[in-house]
Amino acid sequence: xxxxxxxxxxLMLAFVLAGxxxxxxxxxxxxxxxxxxxxxxLMFRGRPILGENKTVRGFVVMIPAAALAFAVIAxxxxxxxxxxxxxxxxxxxxxxxxLGAWAGFGFMAAEIPNSxxxxxxxxxxxxxxxxxxxxxxxxxxDHIDSVVGMLAAVTLAVxxxxxxxxxxLILGPxxxxxxxxxxxxxxxxxxxx
Length: 193
Description:
Blueprint: H1 4-27, E1 43-44, E2 47-48, H2 56-78, H3 93-109, H4 111-120, H5 132-157, H6 162-185
Antiparallel strand pairs: 1-2
Helix pairs in contact: 1-2, 1-6, 2-3, 3-5, 5-6
């Protein structure tokens, strides 16, 4: 039977590894060649649909990085007994890679609606809203949207205990906040996307 905490720890560890790869890629000058806005520069109501910070370069690294992280962790934890522990999903390493790619897509895609809403509210990419209430709402959504998108993708693919959601939603935003802070410190992005 799945252990909700083990499943949650697996997901968080995989995304820490994928996030490290993502951070290194975003800081690398080679990634600039793929800094192509996802919205193609299109406007809605006279405002950018997503803005200049949502680009192809994030998707092209996070999806394979998550796939690789899921597969590597699955292989490493399977070494002692030749299969994943009974407390995790019983998938092959390729199954874990596919799950990781799907989870990486969910992680990245979940940021799109938030960016759209912020652009339509006139909040520029990388800027915080002027209103304290709006700033608090945006801060909260910025740090849970990707986590919820990843969890939704995983849940669509494999049975996921509701308490895994709880563990990841409690611990995941703190990890996401640390990554956002790290990206800000490295100069990869502004305070908010």
